[in-house]
Amino acid sequence: MLSKPILLILPFTLALLTGCESSSPPGTNAGAEQLRLSMTPAMRDAGVPDSCIQQLPTSTLAQVKGITASSSRTSKDYLQRRQQIRTAAQKACGDF
Length: 96
Description:
The chain has 96 residues and is mainly α. It has helices at 4-18, 30-45, 50-55, 58-68, 75-93. It comes from Aliiruegeria lutimaris.
C-alpha cells in the first residue's frame, strides 16, 4: 500500500507532467500519437489488436474519441460503444 505522503504528491506530480510541453520537434505528428495513446485503452477494451491501433489514421482516432466522449449508462450502451469502436477500426484495418 502506498504511504499517505505519496498519495498526496501523486496527483500534483501527474498534473505537472500533463502540463509539460512535448519534446517532439516541429513537423512530427505528436498530437496524433498523444491521441493514439489516450484512445488505446478503449480500443483494447473493444478488442482492437495493437497492430491495428498502431496504423489507425488520425481521422479514425478522432472518431473513437467522439464515441468514447459520452458515458455508458447501461450495459447495452457499453456494448454498443465497443461495437462502434471495433467497426471504426475495422474500416481502417480490415477484419481482425
